[in-house]
């Protein structure tokens, strides 16, 4: 028994614990219909694991099952088997076999929901499945685990087996009683034999069997004593007077035996006491009967002589009885001798038992000392681990203080960030409003831009067409201007030739004056020399010449007088007035275009300045953005470093938590082992108490035997009494020794509560450490969650800041683009207005050109008419002179008329020379000089007009060049906008 206990105490240390025992019975159990009720929220999936308390290992584990409406049901069935030895199965109170059900979450972070344990020894004899609801331990949510347990190999009922054994014993006892009743003449020597056999069987039971078998032997021993004692009483007293009593006693003993067979070990011990008491009562009853018989003999002597014979017969019978009693005394003496030898054998056996007990106690003490040393070493290791855990806890506390400081700093930063967030939220709202307005405006502007682009495209198409037309017209004008410049150059050459002709005319006039002087001298000479005839003829000739000259002068005067009255002069005046008006209008237009050019140059300069400012601002913003990016990168690096440090600390803390968890598991295992050892010690103490009680019973038996021996030896010898007293003293000394040993064991048992208290303190410290570890893990997880949330918030804030910066930059860009577009639109509108004005001007110029062309065509018609008239003037000079002086409205016609007039003047001079040579008259010369002066004045006027026309053409060409440059610039801007 003790070895089995020691083996069970050290079962968790040995590797042979998993193997089934050599002799025992296997019981198979199934666990089905497992479901968890009242599962709290937050546990989405659960898994169940089955742990054996013997091996402290996970036997089975289920899969992850989802929780629905607070219940989680597992469809799996678990099968487990346990081995129970024959010694354990023979007991009424079998050993407890616990299995632990551990309910955990689906993920590693969720942890354990709770655990519960189930004793399978309670279901060994259950033939039908049993539904059990077990509340989960270490769970504050009140969840319940329902399990349906069924034993596949149920055990037979122990009470039924005992009832069967009891009935068998009852039949045996009844047969034995019948046999003993038939043996009426049996002597009292059988009592000693039976006592010897019972004592020997009891001794053998004490040596070989276990405490459970001792109780059975004691019950049989007590029953046999009771039976044989009553048989002896029947033999000594007589069957007639004590038969009823013996039957009653036998029946009572049979009942007591039945009760002994049914009850447990404690009841068996009680029955042994009752049988011993019955033996004493029987012996006292026999003594009383002997006294009564002696008293009856005395009374018979005093009675009548009639009864003497009867008394003599009775005395003879009593003598016979006395002889029998003497024989019985001899047999009792023999029995005493045999009992002494048996006592000596019993003392030897007791010594052997004591030696065995001492050896076993020594072994047990050594085992306990080894275990205590092991526990001390384990306690020292645990104390070292506790110190390490305390140090690690101190470090963790310092780390958590640092974390709290960082958390406080982060809270301050979070508060500042929250204030910034509020500002950002307000700014975000404002930006949202602005974005909405900007989106609306952008949509509107896009619509307007689309419309404007369409309008601009149409206008550009129209403008491109008009520009092409204008280019064509400008080319035509350039060709006309080139032709006019060529004609002007030809006119200049002709004017130079006319100047040369004027020089020749002046020379001719000088010669004419000289000739006049010569003529006057000749007249004087003729007047003096010639006669009157000649004078008369000369005077007549002179008169003819004078009359011819006068006629020519009159004709010249008339022609000169007729010219101002002619309609051509009025037309020329009107044309000059129109040209002046046109000059004034063109000068005004030129001034307006110069103002527009100045405005355009100013706007270009302002746009350039704005572009420079925007570029400078963009550069500054880029610098700020680079600085912010550098700051953000530095912050990211700092955050990464902090994260790495935090991760390192977290890993260290996790490692410490894992080590603590392993230590906790080890401590739990050690505490469980200590608890098991404590339970085993308690059981062992109970067994020792039972052994002590048995020893006390044995002592009581020995005392009773010693008393019997004293009573028997008081008649025989005092020496034997002294020997027996010495033996009793020796037994008392042994009892005292056993009491001392019991006191030592009690002291050890008193030490056990201290160990229990230490174990409880260790458990409490373990629980506190677990709670601290859980609190630390929870705080660490909360800190990690806060850190992750802060990290996410920082990232979101950085993203928001970047998005806000992007939005601000986009808004600024959109504003700039909008302002640029508005400026460009204004410019385009101005340009369109200018283009419209230019188009109007071009149309006006076209109209003017058309008018000029019409005038040119008219002048060409007039030139044709004039050529016709000139052809006619060759026939009649006067009519031709009056007709060919039709005024010209155009410069080209004027130039042609001047050329024709020059030709006519040259012809006229040539004719005039001929006339001078033929006529030699002064009057004709005077008229010719007047005509030459008039022609020179006309030539000077025509030269001035030609210079003015050239200047106008140069100004117009410059304006056209500027307009074309502006048009090209606008076309480039429109292309850029379209891009």
UniProtKB/TrEMBL annotation:
The keyword Coiled coil applies. Residues 702-723 are annotated as: Disordered. Residues 17-153 form the C2 NT-type domain. Residues 308-349, 467-529, 611-649, 773-831, 856-952 form a coiled coil. PANTHER family: HEAVY CHAIN-LIKE PROTEIN, PUTATIVE-RELATED (PTHR47270:SF13), PROTEIN MLP1-LIKE (PTHR47270). This is C2 NT-type domain-containing protein. The keyword Coiled coil applies. Keywords: Coiled coil.
């Amino acid at each position: 028994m003790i070895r089995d206990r020691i083996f069970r105490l050290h079962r968790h240390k040995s590797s042979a614990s998993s193997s089934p025992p050599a002799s025992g019975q296997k019981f198979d159990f199934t666990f089905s219909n497992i479901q968890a009720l009242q599962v709290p929220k937050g546990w989405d999936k659960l898994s169940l694991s089955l742990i054996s308390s013997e091996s402290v290992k996970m036997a089975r584990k289920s899969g992850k099952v989802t929780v629905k409406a607070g219940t989680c049901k597992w469809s799996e069935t678990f099968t487990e088997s346990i081995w129970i030895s024959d010694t354990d199965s023979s007991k009424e109170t079998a050993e407890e076999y616990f299995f632990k059900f551990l309910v955990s979450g689906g993920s590693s972070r969720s942890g354990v929901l709770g655990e519960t344990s189930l004793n399978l020894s309670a279901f060994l004899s259950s033939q039908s499945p049993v539904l059990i609801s077990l509340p989960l331990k270490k769970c504050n949510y009140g969840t319940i685990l329902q399990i349906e347990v069924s034993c596949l190999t149920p055990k037979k009922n122990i009470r039924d087996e005992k009832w069967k054994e009891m009935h068998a014993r009852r039949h045996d006892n009844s047969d034995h009683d019948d046999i003993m009743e038939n043996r009426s003449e049996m002597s009292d020597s059988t009592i000693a034999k039976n006592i010897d056999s019972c004592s020997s069987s009891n001794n053998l039971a004490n040596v070989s069997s276990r405490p459970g078998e001792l109780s059975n032997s004691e019950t049989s021993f007590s029953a046999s004593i009771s039976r044989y004692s009553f048989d002896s009483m029947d033999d000594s007293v007589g069957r007639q007077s004590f038969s009823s009593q013996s039957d009653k006693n036998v029946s009572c003993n049979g009942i007591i035996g039945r009760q002994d067979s049914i009850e447990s070990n404690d009841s068996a011990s009680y029955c042994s006491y009752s049988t011993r008491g019955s033996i004493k009562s029987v012996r006292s009853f026999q003594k009383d009967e002997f006294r009564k018989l002696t008293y009856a003999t005395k009374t018979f002597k005093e009675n009548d002589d009639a009864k003497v014979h009867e008394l003599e017969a009775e005395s003879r019978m009593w003598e016979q009885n006395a002889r029998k009693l003497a024989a019985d005394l001899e047999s009792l003496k023999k029995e005493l001798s045999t009992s002494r030898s048996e006592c000596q054998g019993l003392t030897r056996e007791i010594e052997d038992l004591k030696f065995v007990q001492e050896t076993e106690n020594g072994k047990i003490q050594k085992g306990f000392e080894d275990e205590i040393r092991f526990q001390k070493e384990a306690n020292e290791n645990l104390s070292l681990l506790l110190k390490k855990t305390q140090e690690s806890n101190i470090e963790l506390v310092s780390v958590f203080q640092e974390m709290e400081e960082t958390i406080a700093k982060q809270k301050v930063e979070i508060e500042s960030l929250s204030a910034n967030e509020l500002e950002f939220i307000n700014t975000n709202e404002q930006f949202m409003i602005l974005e909405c307005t900007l989106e609306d405006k952008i949509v509107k502007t896009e619509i307007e831009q689309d419309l404007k682009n369409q309008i601009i495209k149409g206008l550009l198409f129209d403008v491109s067409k008009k520009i092409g037309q204008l280019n064509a017209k400008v080319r035509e004008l350039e060709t006309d201007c080139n032709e006019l410049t060529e004609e002007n150059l030809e006119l200049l050459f002709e004017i130079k030739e006319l100047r040369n002709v004027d020089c020749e005319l002046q020379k001719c006039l000088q010669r004419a004056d000289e000739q006049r002087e010569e003529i006057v001298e000749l007249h004087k000479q003729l007047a003096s020399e010639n006669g009157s005839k000649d004078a008369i003829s000369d005077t007549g000739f002179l008169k003819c010449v004078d009359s011819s000259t006068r006629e020519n002068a009159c004709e010249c005067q008339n022609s000169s007088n007729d010219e101002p009255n002619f309609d051509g002069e009025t037309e020329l005046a009107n044309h000059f007035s129109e040209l002046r008006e046109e000059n004034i209008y063109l000068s005004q237009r030129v001034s307006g275009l110069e103002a527009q050019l100045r405005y355009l140059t100013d706007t270009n300069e302002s746009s350039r300045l704005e572009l420079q400012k925007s570029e400078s601002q963009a550069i500054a913003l880029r610098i700020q953005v680079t600085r912010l990016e550098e700051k953000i990168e530095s912050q990211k690096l700092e955050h990464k470093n902090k994260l790495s440090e935090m991760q390192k600390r977290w890993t260290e803390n996790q490692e410490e938590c894992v080590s603590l968890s392993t230590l906790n598991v080890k401590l739990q295992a050690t505490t469980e082992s200590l608890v098991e050892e404590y339970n085993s010690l308690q059981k062992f103490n109970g067994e020792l108490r039972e052994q002590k009680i048995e020893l006390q019973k044995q002592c009581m038996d020995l005392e009773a035997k010693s008393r019997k021996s004293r009573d028997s030896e008081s008649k025989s010898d005092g020496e034997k009494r002294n020997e027996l007293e010495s033996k009793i003293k020796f037994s008392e000394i042994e009892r005292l020794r056993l009491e001392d040993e019991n006191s030592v064991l009690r002291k050890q048992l008193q030490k056990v509560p201290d160990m229990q208290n230490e174990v409880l303190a260790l458990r409490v410290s373990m629980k506190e450490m677990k709670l601290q570890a859980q609190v630390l893990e929870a705080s660490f997880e909360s800190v990690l969650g806060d850190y992750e949330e802060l990290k996410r918030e920082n990232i979101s804030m950085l993203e928001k800041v970047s998005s806000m910066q992007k939005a601000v930059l986009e808004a600024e860009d959109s504003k700039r683009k909008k302002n640029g577009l508005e400026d460009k639109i204004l410019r385009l509108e101005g340009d369109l207005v200018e283009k419209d004005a230019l188009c109007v001007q071009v149309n006006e110029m076209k109209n003017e050109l058309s008018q000029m062309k019409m005038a040119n065509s008219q002048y060409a018609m007039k030139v044709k008419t004039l050529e016709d008239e000139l052809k006619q003037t060759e026939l009649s000079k006067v009519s031709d002179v009056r007709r060919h002086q039709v005024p010209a409205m155009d410069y080209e016609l004027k130039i042609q008329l001047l050329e024709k007039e020059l030709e006519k003047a040259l012809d006229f001079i040539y004719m005039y020379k001929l006339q001078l040579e033929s006529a030699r008259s002064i009057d004709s010369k005077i008229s010719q000089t007047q005509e030459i002066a008039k022609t020179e004045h006309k030539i000077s006027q025509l030269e001035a007009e030609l210079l003015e026309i050239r200047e106008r053409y140069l100004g117009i060409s410059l304006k056209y060049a500027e307009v074309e440059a502006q048009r090209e610039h606008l076309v480039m801007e429109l292309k850029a906008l379209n891009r």
